[in-house]
Amino acid sequence: MTIINLGELCEIFSTIVDPGEQDEYLVEEIQKWRVTNNYTEQEVFEALVVRAKASLKKHDQQPQIYACVLGLFYHYRIGTHSNKKKSFKWYAISACFGNPFGMNQLGWCYSIPFGTDRDYEKAIYWIKESAHLGNSSGACNLAYAYRLGIMIERNNVKSYLWYEYAANAGVLHAQMNMACYHRIGLGTSKDVHEAFKWYRKASKHPKSTRKM
User: How far apart are CA 132 and CA 125, in angstroms?
Assistant: First the structure.
């Protein structure tokens, strides 16, 4: 029987979600870890199910992380069939245990909807909770909601401030939005120098395809 080092998996998860990376990048890094360790998807999934359930019973210090990763596995069919309801369930467990990434995922589920009924009130509640706890993806989603008036009253100033938070945390598309907001004076003063500064910073981002 293969012993799966789930501690490493949780460490990868915690390290990656801090800068507000997209889900697809997180899944890609999980797969790299799996291949490096010669684990099969099913082996990791089965070990994760056991650990996630056990952590809830034992009041483990990391139940929210195991739950959130398991939600991702159901979401992206890693070692199992896609199951929207189970993905939603584990995101919800993670969120209720206080995981900011899980909160953002739960908000996304309510807004799409994914594995549950659409509920914009719950969606914006969890996205706000995520953002206020420092999750960069949550900050970006909240900024987007304020910009377009989706699920919440439009507010360009608040949109700018949340994009600024995410941009300073290193999120590429938030940096691009900062440049755009300064260029046209949206939610802040029009300032071509600030716009150029953010365009330049974004161009140096490891994932940027536009170099200056």
Answer: 11
| Segment 45-49 long-range contacts (CB within 8 Å, at least 24 positions apart) | 45/73, 45/78, 45/79, 45/80, 46/79, 47/4, 47/6, 48/4, 48/6, 48/9, 48/73
pLDDT for the residue numbered 19: 56
Please check whether residue 101 is in contact with residue 135, taking contact to mean a CB–CB distance below 8 angstroms.
yes
Which range of residues forms the domain containing residue 175? 154-206
Q: What is the pLDDT of residue 88?
A: 99
Please report whether residue 148 resides in a domain.
Answer: no
Q: How many CB atoms lie within 10 A of CB 203?
A: 16
45 with 125, same domain? yes
User: Domain check: are 170 and 94 in the same one?
Assistant: no
